[in-house]
Design brief:
Layout (H helix, E strand, L loop, with lengths): L1 H4 L5 H7 L5 H12 L3 E2 L2 E2 L2 E5 L5 H6 L5 E6 L2 H10 L5 E5 L13 E7 L7 H11 E17 L4 H11 L19 H6 L12 E9 L19 E5 H8 L3 H9 L14 H11 L2 H4 L9 E15 L1
Parallel strand pairs: 3-4, 3-6, 4-5, 6-7
Antiparallel strand pairs: 1-2, 7-10, 8-10, 9-10
Helix pairs in contact: 7-11
Family: Belongs to the methyltransferase superfamily.
Protein name: S-adenosyl-L-methionine-dependent methyltransferase
GO molecular function, one term: S-adenosylmethionine-dependent methyltransferase activity
């Protein structure tokens, strides 16, 4: 998670433009954890949120637990989480999934990781998780990847060329491809298939994964339980989201000469990508400089992995 940990990474921008999660996702995880999780109406148990970022998940799930520990390796993310979190029973601290030595054995009822588990070193994380999660406790990891604009599948090919293409997507411009941190990005794009809870410690494993058809944009095969990351956004908001990619941050560091149009330059790789995206849809092109105000239906591929501690 090195790029997110750099002091130059905008944790505030990440917090502002990353998609949130719907109540349906949290309810599914809580129901798997324990449908009767409240004792006489009072929240019980301890939640551990790994890779907490700006604290979104910790804040959303806090009402269902007696205490929450939110952990992130990035100083900037921890500072942002503390700034946005006023709940007194949420403890935000810096740390990693590979070292939970500050926690006692069997002291965690539920451990979650939203858009973070693909960064873990599981050879070290699995033993720690097995140690701190109590018997009968729950693990839930989830993530989303590679959006599709519903009804405009032609824009997906443009996205793929600029984000993953090995050739120059525009003359003299490098794509984001070599700046993705691996194997993390590949693990997420492969729906956590390589993330296998050890059978000696975990049971009742559930994996729900789905990817939209990037050629047709067809959503007819999407199971309702997997279609949880879908948003109505303005194109300008979608552009701002893409600028939170860790790969784009790496691209900027490698190409300081390519200033964005917003900063008075000729345009960076994201400017050029969205110029092509707008050009591909005549109705958007007619909007001219107001294209960022166009509302679009955006859906992401998703994965949820859950397991119970033996």
């Amino acid at each position: 998670m090195s790029i997110f940990s750099r002091s130059s990474f905008s944790s505030a921008g990440y917090a502002a433009f990353r998609p949130t999660y719907p109540p349906a996702l949290f309810n599914r995880i809580l129901n798997y954890h324990d449908a009767n999780r409240r004792s006489n109406g009072v929240p019980t148990g301890r939640l551990l949120d790994l890779g907490c970022g700006h604290g979104l998940v910790a804040r959303a799930l806090a009402p269902s637990f007696a205490s929450v520990v939110a952990l992130d390796p990035s100083t900037g993310m921890v500072e942002q989480a503390k700034k946005l979190t006023s709940n007194p029973w949420i403890e935000v601290r810096q740390g990693t999934a590979e070292d939970l030595s500050f926690l006692e054995n069997g002291s965690v009822d539920c451990v979650v990781a939203g858009q973070a588990a693909h960064w873990f070193n599981f050879s070290e994380a699995w033993p720690e998780l097995a140690r701190v999660v109590k018997r009968g406790g729950t693990l839930a990891f989830w993530g989303y990847k590679d959006h599709v604009i519903v009804g405009q599948p032609q824009t997906s090919a443009i996205y793929d060329r600029f984000v993953y293409g090995q050739a120059e997507p525009a003359p003299g411009v490098e794509s984001l491809a070599r700046f993705w941190e691996l194997p993390g990005r590949d693990i997420l794009r492969d729906s956590f298939r390589s993330v296998v809870p050890p059978g000696t410690d975990w049971q009742n494993v559930v994996r729900i994964a789905w990817d939209p058809d990037r050629v047709t944009g067809d959503l007819s095969d999407a199971p309702e339980e997997a279609l949880w990351q879908r948003k109505t956004l303005k194109l300008g908001e979608l552009e701002s989201y893409v600028r939170t990619f860790s790969a784009f941050h790496g691209w900027q560091a490698a190409h300081p000469e390519r200033k964005s149009q917003a900063n008075g330059g000729e345009g960076d790789v994201i400017d050029l990508m969205f110029e092509e995206v707008v050009e591909a849809v005549p109705a958007w092109k007619t909007k001219g400089d107001e294209w960022r105000d166009v509302e679009v239906d955006v859906v992401w591929g998703t994965v949820v992995l859950m397991a119970k501690r033996r």
